[in-house]
Every structure is written in C-alpha cells, then in structure tokens.
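Anyone able to model this chain together with coenzyme A?
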Amino acid sequence: MKKAVYPGSFDPITIGHMEILQRSLEVFDEVTILLAVNPNKKSTFSVDERLEMMRNATKDLKGVKVDFCPGLTVDYCHKNNATHLIRGLRAVTDFEYEFQLSAANHFAAPDIDMVFFMAKQENTFISSSTINELYRAGVDISPLVPPIVVEMYKRKTK
Ligand code: COA
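re: yes, here you go
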C-alpha cells in the first residue's frame, strides 16, 4: 500500500487544499492530511477547530486520514510507514520556500521523497490568509472553502 502525508497549517482548509488532496488520492492508496506546526505563524483557528474542519471536509473521501503532529513531518512519515510528502505549488513564488523545505526534509530523512502538484489556475490566488482577510471584510467566501469552514467562522464570530 502506497502511503503519503499532506502536511500544512490548514488555517482554514480551502478548496485549493481539497484539489491537491483529491489529485494525490489518484496516485496514493492512502493520504494523511496532517495538521503540522509552522512556528512562524499565528493561527486564526485552534488545533481542534482546524482538525474538525479537516475531518468534516474529507469525510466522503476514501483513503483519507486526518491527524495532528507537533513535530517533524518526516518523523510522522517514518512512524506511519508513509514514503512521500505531498505539497501544492500555486506560483513561482511558492517554489523557493518549497525548495528549501524539501531540502530540510531531505537532510533530516533522505528516504522520504516529496511530490508536488501544480494547483489549477483558478485556485492559484487562494491561501488561508486571503480567506481570513476576505471573510473579515464581509466577502462571501463560500465558493472558496468547504461548507464547514463557513459554519466555523460563523460559530467563532457569534
Ligand atoms: N491551495 C490553497 N492554499 C494553498 C495551497 C493550495 N494548493 N498550497 C499552499 N497554500 C497556502 C496555504 O493556505 C498557506 O496560506 P497562508 O500562508 O496564508 O496560511 C500557505 O500556502 C502555506 O502553506 P501551508 O501548506 O499551510 O504551509 P505552511 O508554510 O504554513 O506550513 C508546514 C508548512 C506546516 C508543512 C511546515 O512548516 C512543516 O513541515 N512543519 C512541521 C515541522 C517540520 O517538519 N519542518 C520541516 C523541516 S525544518
């Protein structure tokens, strides 16, 4: 069984992430969508809220697991017998960051390889912080996120 891990901050999960996840399921038998920690980021949603959104958004997809890892993603891969890390690329600006992340992962665990999917053109402008900004400005974000995310924003601002 070919297993992969798709790590990210998912703050919140968007249709851009869903696109990458769905495409990765065509290549791997099992994909864990992993809430990982980027120490340079301040999050809008708590770990539990993000996991709830990730679980709900992926509940109808076969072969998907949702998990949280406070440490290195490559260690998580080793513990769970995953061979690949998945990332999405939206624009050339993502490349340098992903190139460095990939090099750091390779240094820590040369046996874990990374697979990149190019985002569909219509999703290239989407990021979690853009969603947060649009929501705060009162723009309808429902076309850009799974329905649970809209619900969670409403719950949060009640
Ligand atoms: N569609 C929509 N948005 C996308 C996207 C896509 N296809 N691909 C990337 N993004 C956005 C995300 O929404 C996020 O937006 P934001 O910056 O506004 O929040 C941004 O691109 C960055 O993506 P994300 O996948 O969340 O990465 P990150 O930089 O926040 O986190 C980790 C990267 C969590 C995977 C990385 O820090 C990590 O691996 N941490 C664990 C520790 C570790 O193993 N470190 C590596 C060795 S040092």
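The longest strand covers residues 30-36.
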